[in-house]
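Query protein
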Amino acid sequence: MADTKANIIITVSSVVLTLALGRIADASMRPAVITLAVFTLISLFFAILAVLPKHRSIRVAAGPLPDDFNLLFFGHFAELPRDRFLHEVAASMKPDGSVYKTMANDLYSLGWYLAHRKYRYLRFSYLFFLAGFIIACAQQLWTLVAN
């Protein structure tokens, strides 16, 4: 959902930027067009940051897995040899509830990442996009009323 929203704002920002820059030669519209272009570029930047993959691999040595290791996240388990991965999965499948703890940990990690990374950048993107339109409209209205 977050990537879809980011892709929408990337597409719309690109179209608005293209149309706005096509009108930059019009002297009466230049201040509003520049304002709109700057805010749209900032919006585009934040939307791209929202969809950029952010992956930190965890180097695992012999011994117990680190506390922040997520057995269900490819970026973590890809660092394990296949036999160690299978052993760790089997260990988490015990009837003591370990599998539920592993699943809950993965679910929490996904939610935390969405809330603190993707949606934060999306919010900034939408706010800059909206602010650019409001300020550009106000500037153009002021220019029209002043003349």
About this structure: Residues 2-146 form one domain. The chain has five helices and no strands. The first helix runs from residue 2 to 22.
